[in-house]
Specification:
The structure holds 2 protein chains of 2 kinds. By secondary structure, chain A is an all-beta fold. Helix content of chain A is about 0%, strand content about 50%. In chain B, a hairpin with a 6-residue loop joins strand 7 and strand 8. Classes of the chains: A mainly beta, B mainly beta.
Chain lengths: ~120, ~120
């Protein structure tokens, strides 16, 4: 079965410092990986995705993620954190059932990012 | 442009009551998904539509849950005889098409259901 793990419930960083939110995955075949952010009382907002190509993916709001096949990881990164980045972050993998692809996502448990001034 | 909208945003139901949750996807989006997000958890897949066809309902937790998308646009998730364990945020998402694996899903704000 395909799965995603976010090993940290919460990440705390100071504003201006780099941040990393970790994600590891387990899939059969090629992974299609996504990061979403959720602000309070709002739906999930798409940040970035990895399908194929360059291992470093750039997304919205200055975020980027590094795909590492050997470590089965897809960590989210940002060079300089902002207080406004404080939110709940979800890593997700597209579920692949045999040769079919309904497109449904399997999400991690989420990581709360707290950026302090 | 308009995103995915959901209504109501909040719903309080007494145990045993039936509820209906509505999702308006982005215009032209073929694929529509429903997810359930329990408190402190990541969203979990419930069901998937391609146009009006419900192609995957493997995530529906019981036969009390029913979803439809009769004209391939608006979708309704219905929960019959609600139970306390149904309390969660119900998220709807749409994407332009399926079969193209790199399409991201666009999520609505969700409906927070509380069953007393």
């Amino acid at each position: 079965a395909q799965s995603v793990a976010q090993p940290e419930d919460q990440v705390n960083v100071a504003e201006g410092n780099p941040l990393t939110v970790k994600c590891t995955y387990s899939v059969s075949g090629n992974p299609y990986l996504f990061w979403y952010v959720q602000y309070p009382n709002r739906g999930l907002q798409f940040l970035l995705k990895y399908i194929t190509g360059d291992n470093l993916v750039k997304g919205s709001y200055g975020f980027e993620a590094e795909f590492n096949k050997s470590q089965t990881s897809f960590h989210l990164k940002k060079p300089s954190a902002l207080v406004s980045d404080s939110a709940l972050y979800f890593c997700a993998v597209r579920d692949m059932i045999g040769s079919s692809n309904t497109g449904k996502l399997i999400f991690g448990q989420g990581t709360t990012l707290q950026v302090k001034p | 442009g308009a995103g995915v909208s959901q209504s109501p945003r909040y719903k309080v139901a007494k145990r045993g009551q039936d509820v209906a949750l509505r999702c308006d996807p982005i215009s032209g989006h073929v694929s529509l998904f429903w997810y359930q997000q329990a408190l402190g958890q990541g969203p979990e897949f419930l069901t998937y539509f391609q146009n009006e066809a419900q192609l995957d309902k493997s995530g529906l937790p019981s036969d009390r849950f029913f979803a439809e998308r009769p004209e391939g646009s608006v979708s309704t998730l219905k929960i019959q005889r609600t139970q306390q364990e149904d309390s969660a945020v119900y998220l709807c998402a749409s994407s332009f098409r399926v079969g193209s694996s790199y399409n991201e899903q666009f999520f609505g704000p969700g409906t927070r259901l509380t069953v007393l």
